[in-house]
Request: fold
Amino acid sequence: MGKQIVVVGSVNLDLVCTGKRIPAPGETVTGNKFQTFFGGKGANQAVAVGRLGYSVSMIAKVGDDEFGNQLRKGLRTAAVNIRHVTTAEGTASGVALISVDARGQNSIMVIPGANGKLLPEDVESTLPILRAAGMILTQLEIPMETVEYLCEISRRNGVPLMLDPAPARNLPRKILKQVSYLTPNETEMCTLCGIPSPDLNEGIIAESAKNLRSKGAANVIIKLGARGAYLDAADKQRKLIPSFKVPVVDSTAAGDAFNAGLAVALLRGNSLPDAVRYAAAVGAVSVTRAGAQPAMPTATEVDKLLARRT
Reply:
């Protein structure tokens, strides 16, 4: 195995309720189930990498509460190195409130808690592990100043950086220019490109990917859910890579599973199109069961899905 993956990001406890549909603003509906899962986009990606059998370390913060202890245990159980998961004293751990409808679609509200305390000085104290990484994965559930500092570290040390621009927000060119792999979903793509309409045909998606590359991102992979993923690569490859048809139970963290699969496949030497296909398979397996981290597949499960399509 080559250099390890380092994930810098959020660690949350997910509070998940399921029902026939997600409430509209001001509406109360009756659900049918409540569960708690380990989550947070950063932790989801780290756990997914570990489940795929690849070496991974996590840089994060949890609160000095019982949730923090549980979250550390969940990471450790998934073979994630938690040496650099530290405690934010006097602060609660991050939580996410998730509603899931009968089709497996979701809406999410995140309360950052300790994730908001992961600052540039915390990242600076982990420089040796970042310099030695094969790839750095990060997201936007930690302070933007930390993301900016992380981008600078990756550039200075020649370490590829994969950015999942979620939750959706505008990003300056100085960040995009330092991103090796930008992986927005449709909502995040619209925010980054200033597109108001949700009616996204392939032409709009292709133009948006081109736009994001013109702003500096080396490779853009737009996650399109059931439609697959659109790739606009630095070597000029542009194509829609189809998804895998599977029964959807819960789409929570499918994008995180995708990013983990993409990073693992690239570091195992796959071409970028093949890595995107592998990532799509990882995401597809994850939606067939409930929860974020519990849904992350093993390499064997992913290989079985890929074998059905070869």
